[in-house]
Write a structure and sequence with these properties.
Elements lengths: L15 H14 L4 E4 L6 H6 L3 E4 L8 H4 L9 H12 L3 H5 L2 E5 L3 H10 L5 E4 L10 H20 L5 H23 L10 H12 L3 H21 L10 E6 L8 H8 L3 E5 L19 H10 L10 H14 L3 E7 L3 H17 L3 E7 L6 H13 L2
Parallel strand pairs: 1-2, 1-3, 3-4, 5-6, 5-7, 7-8
The structure holds iron/sulfur cluster (SF4) (2 copies).
The site of one iron/sulfur cluster has 13 residues, from helix 4, helix 6 and helix 14.
Length: 384
Amino acid sequence: MSHLTPLFNDEFIDLPLKRALGQVVKRRETGSKVVGAYCSYAPVELVWAMGGVPAILCAFSNAPIGKAEETLPTNLCPLIKSSFGFIELKTCPFFELTDAVVGETTCDGKKKMFELIGKHRPMYVMDLPQCPTNKGAVAYWRQSVAGFKEFLESEFHMTITESAIEKSIQESNRKNSLVEEIFAFGAHDPSIITWQEMYDVATFAVVSNGSETIAKLQEIIALLTDRREKGQYVSKENAKRVLITGCPIGGDVLKVLKLVDEEGATVVGLDNCTGLKPFLGRIDEGSDDPLMAIAKRYLQIPCACMTPNTGRFDQLKKQVSLLKPDLVIDLVLQACHTFNVEAVKVESCVRNDLGVNYLKVVTDFSTQDLGQLKTRIGAALEMS
Ligand code: SF4
Ligand code: SF4
């Protein structure tokens, strides 16, 4: 890797989260309001349209979990406990910068956690319909999108114009296409992009927009094209290829991806919400009803909280066909029931329909299962 030109320059040389934080701080210093968001269903186009900046608040550190467990049940998803613990300790730099927060009712734990943190910031909770193909679901969700717009306008004493929303939609579409293009470099064999770089790109793109972001993403595409042309690989030839699906990951749960590296394999795709998922799909441009266009696109995000969640399987099939993994690792955070139960169908899809080996990993943010994980990942790669 030492001979490679890094995808991010010195300004961005630190950890992905620090880089994202730098972006948020920079925007705040120029007067932008910071709106914390709990996940991928938050229609950030409205935040950009009001001149604000979104900050994703899902946390992946084991450190604040002890604090969270003073209030929350221990058998709760670590992502929720970590996010809550940081807020209680006032040590989440993203949350501390926020002027308001938006949450979506994706799962019960998060939904009830929103009630507990509502005392800290003005908060809007979007009621997410979880049967996305049922009659009336999109229209209902549009009301939540409109409600979020009204909340922002009232909280920050401004009007978010249709033309600003349209501009923001166009920028998102452009950005999302470029991120998708970058992730498609994962198809190269041997690999020319690492999982750390994919994670960096996704983390950067979530909190960035506008022409500078587009320019940065185009620069990354040029660098990756150069690597491809020069045959500069980041994995060994014949390294086993791994696609990661499941719950969002980051921080301490990156232990699973590091173990894949240690086994000499290469992660070729991140199919989850801290990878490609938030950048999939496009919002209709030039529509008569931009809020409806936004609602339609967001309701298509294939999270396990949805039923049926056919989009996840369509996306998995596309990813497997493009990236040609030898193994799919389905990473489920402890006590995340939706992803845990859906794993039954994911395993069947991966093994039977796609003919690829499959490993389900249920874990938290601690290090206590490192030995067991290493053995299981090593054995699954051996059999792939
Ligand atoms: S997996 Fe679902 S709940 Fe979690 S961040 Fe993604 S969309 Fe949100
Ligand atoms: S990982 Fe699962 S349980 Fe945890 S916040 Fe996301 S959807 Fe909820």
